[in-house]
């Protein structure tokens, strides 16, 4: 089944099953009717397991996958923009799967208000496991004591939270990147632990930066280095496969395109030098933004993205009403990534094989 039960619907009792299902179906949800003799398989209109978008009862954005044991956790922002509002993002959500077909909604793991020094904007995030704890890095708008955006860090003993502010202040503020041209350049953290155990953080909008984290995970260690690749817009994602390091990001060639695509660079070391490898995807359907998140899970590689093609009730997709998707990611023998075409079928076809 393609099932994604909203958090509030996940109850073992469900005494009024039919009513609950009707209520849970805000546009999507195929529910496994365990024990029901009436159920004869998915209706023709129901999407196949693994189809896009993954979440259909909420607008979600900025996907960040994390594998823990046999489970893939997916952290997202929650898009709640109304009418023509650009963004309205107040909390982060987490979903999990063990098979890439059935997703469990764990509800919000944190709200931007949980960072007392932050004003608004639960923007892009990524969680990472280190020394048995889960560290959550996220972009937010700082209060008036620092201009523009900042990067927060929170911690939990579980991938599904609750997460708490780990520092009581921002990890990265605007003044730490003085070369930047605008107040929202310090967004979209990506975190990566290298083979020597050092964890690195990269982030940025228009400018892309990288720095080491101290073992305590809540302080920058040493210099901040600019590594901006061609057409870099935002949403960097660091990963490694074999001996190759990848920096994948939302790119925008403003002279040619209106909407972001995904591009990437590779390097022989986390410290570069980075070589531009071109575009990995086109734009997300109806979406100005796109946001890559890459992970290997149970032997396959996946590229998470978002588009704005989901409609919920009378609300169409929009810049601030996006939907997270996932596609298979494949590599060429030389380590370059094969271009990814965004589909409605998502990973459903390959999972069926
Ligand atoms: O979701 C808010 C912002 O839009 C993110 O931080 C960017 O990556 C873009 O997706």
Automatic annotation (TrEMBL):
GO biological processes: xylan catabolic process
Keyword Signal recorded: yes
InterPro entries on file: Glyco_hydro_43, Glyco_hydro_beta-prop_sf, Glycosyl_Hydrlase_43_Enz
Site feature (Important for catalytic activity, responsible for pKa modulation of the active site Glu and correct orientation of both the proton donor and substrate) residues: 188
Superkingdom of this protein's organism: Bacteria
Active-site residue list: 62, 234
Keywords on record: Carbohydrate metabolism, Glycosidase, Hydrolase, Polysaccharide degradation, Signal, Xylan degradation
GO molecular function annotations of the record: hydrolase activity, hydrolyzing O-glycosyl compounds
Stretch forming the signal peptide: 1-40
Signal is among the record's keywords: yes
PANTHER family according to UniProt: ENDO-1,4-BETA-XYLANASE (PTHR43772), PUTATIVE (AFU_ORTHOLOGUE AFUA_2G04480)-RELATED (PTHR43772:SF2)
Similarity comment text for this entry: Belongs to the glycosyl hydrolase 43 family.
This protein's name: Family 43 glycosylhydrolase
Species this protein is from: Croceibacterium salegens
